[in-house]
Structures are given as C-alpha cells and as structure tokens.
C-alpha cells in the first residue's frame, strides 16, 4: 500500500501516449487534469483520467475526484498491479449539460506477470461544478 497522495509509478514520458487510450501524449491529455491545469468536461473524460491516475499511481488525483460522500479517507495503490488498457463500453448522460452520468468500462491489468481485467458500471455526478466519481452501480 502506498501513502495517500504518493505516486507508486514513474510518470509516462512527456511524449508517451496517454494510458487512457485517447490519441494524445499524456502531458496534453490526462496529465493536464492530474496537474490541476484543467477539469474533465464529461463523465467519460473523468473516467479516463481516473484510469490514467491508477496507471501512473496518482492516488492524490483519485481522492480529489472522488465524491466526498463516498470517498475513502485514504487510498492504497497496489504496486504489483499495472493498469495497461481501458475500454469504454457504454456511457449515459455525463455530458456538459448533465449533472449525472454513468460509464461502463473494462480495465485491463497485469499482476505479477498475469493478465487480468475488471469491469465496472460507474456513476458520476457534478459536485461544486466539477465531475466526481460517486461509485459503482
């Protein structure tokens, strides 16, 4: 387990592709959100940035984008888990004019050399003007 706010992995190279799967370098994609230079405009973009935060070990960002009513007091990231690919399967609501939205996704990982995946249908709401992860449905 890592301490709250610590990073368990090195950040991708400035020109490396973003872990979220969008065709942009990490620094110009989710890196901007992680650094606090921009906010996710949709629930899907928040989901993608949260996946990238897991991939780079940015627990502070994960806590910051978690709704305060469901946010844990601290977050431990398993350094043996390496998040490698995100698939967005379905979205509902979560646009710039919405206050709620859902994203169903499949996240692929490697743990101790073995491939795995997890699927979740996540709920997002606007909190104080920004998208926040509420939890799994």
Automatic annotation (TrEMBL):
Domain YchJ-like middle NTF2-like: 42-134
Pfam families found in the cross-reference section: YchJ_M-like
Source species, domain of life: Bacteria
UniProt cross-references to HAMAP family, sorted A to Z: UPF0225
Family per similarity comment: Belongs to the UPF0225 family.
PANTHER family xref list: ADENYLATE CYCLASE-ASSOCIATED CAP C-TERMINAL DOMAIN-CONTAINING PROTEIN, UPF0225 PROTEIN SCO1677
Name under which the protein is recorded: UPF0225 protein Plo01_62780
Origin species: Planobispora longispora
Lineage summary: Bacteria, Bacillati, Actinomycetota, Actinomycetes, Streptosporangiales
